[in-house]
């Protein structure tokens, strides 16, 4: 299968509507690709906390309208990154959207781990509470493949990815708005999640600077052995990579680490 990661530059001088139109045009150019991935919170900026409430939208709001039409026109599966979702009860979530080649909303994922500790996203948004996978049906000569969904800060929590693996995930998709000052962690953690779960990792970041925070860029695709198949630079860029989902099963069969896990161990004596 062919996958494209669209590393979008988020410029505070560009309106969200303008960026939606521009990104939709980029998605339309990906005809012939099986899966397109966008970054985290690209309509508003992952660190533009003061804009979250004003830019919040329902799941099937203006961002969905723009990119679902583009996915339908290009006939691609689209992981549309994430939006600031305003739920029916008024709470905000960092919510990813997965859209079919027919332009239909197939699945959503509300980010479980919110960044900021005692400020920012951690205080402004509610946490998701469910692991989410999506099965992409077989296409052409290729088999079906199961995506596991995570977002940005989730990358620091290996237990989430182990849960996705146990649920059948073969491709771990991680949209992000990762800061440049911690870019070394971004690359390290993406490779670690691939190695420990023997799965592909598609890690799609933003470029540019928003809310005064320089973004890492350097989106990357990692194979089940931890090898980086492709990596972007710091600016807006499109990565397109050929993936073989069968490599996941082959890797797990030839080097069966996952079957050697020991679960439910007792805590140390005295605790």
UniProtKB/TrEMBL annotation:
<keyword id="KW-0378">Hydrolase</keyword>
<protein>
    <submittedName>
        <fullName>Carbon-nitrogen family hydrolase</fullName>
    </submittedName>
</protein>
<dbReference type="GO" id="GO:0016787">
    <property type="term" value="F:hydrolase activity"/>
</dbReference>
<dbReference type="Pfam" id="PF00795">
    <property type="entry name" value="CN_hydrolase"/>
</dbReference>
<dbReference type="InterPro" id="IPR003010">
    <property type="entry name" value="C-N_Hydrolase"/>
</dbReference>
<dbReference type="InterPro" id="IPR001110">
    <property type="entry name" value="UPF0012_CS"/>
</dbReference>
<feature type="domain" description="CN hydrolase">
    <location>
        <begin position="1"/>
        <end position="245"/>
    </location>
</feature>
<comment type="similarity">
    <text>Belongs to the carbon-nitrogen hydrolase superfamily. NIT1/NIT2 family.</text>
</comment>
<dbReference type="InterPro" id="IPR036526">
    <property type="entry name" value="C-N_Hydrolase_sf"/>
</dbReference>
């Amino acid at each position: 299968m062919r996958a494209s990661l669209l590393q979008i530059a988020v410029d505070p001088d560009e309106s969200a509507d303008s960026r939606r139109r521009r990104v939709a045009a980029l998605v339309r150019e990906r005809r012939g690709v099986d899966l397109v991935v966008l970054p985290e919170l690209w309509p508003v900026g992952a660190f533009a906390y003061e804009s979250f409430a004003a830019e919040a939208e329902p799941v099937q709001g203006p961002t969905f309208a723009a990119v679902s039409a583009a996915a339908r026109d290009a006939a691609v599966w689209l992981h549309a990154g994430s939006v600031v979702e305003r739920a029916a009860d008024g709470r905000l979530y960092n919510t990813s959207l997965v859209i079919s080649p027919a332009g239909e909303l197939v699945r959503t994922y509300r980010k479980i781990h919110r960044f900021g500790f005692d400020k920012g996203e951690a205080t402004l948004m509610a946490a998701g509470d469910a692991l989410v996978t999506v099965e992409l049906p077989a296409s052409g000569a290729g088999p079906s493949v199961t995506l596991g969904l995570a977002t940005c800060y989730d990358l620091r929590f290996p237990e989430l990815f182990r849960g996705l693996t146990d649920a059948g995930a073969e491709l771990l998709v991680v949209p992000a708005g990762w800061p440049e000052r911690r870019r070394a962690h971004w690359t390290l953690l993406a490779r670690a999640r691939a190695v420990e779960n023997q799965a592909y990792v598609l890690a799609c970041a933003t470029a540019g600077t928003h809310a005064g925070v320089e973004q890492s860029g350097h989106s990357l695709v990692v194979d089940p052995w931890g090898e980086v198949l492709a990596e972007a630079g710091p600016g807006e860029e499109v990565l397109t990579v050929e993936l073989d989902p069968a490599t996941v099963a082959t890797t797990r069969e030839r080097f069966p680490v996952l079957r050697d896990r020991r679960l439910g161990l007792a805590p140390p004596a005295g605790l």
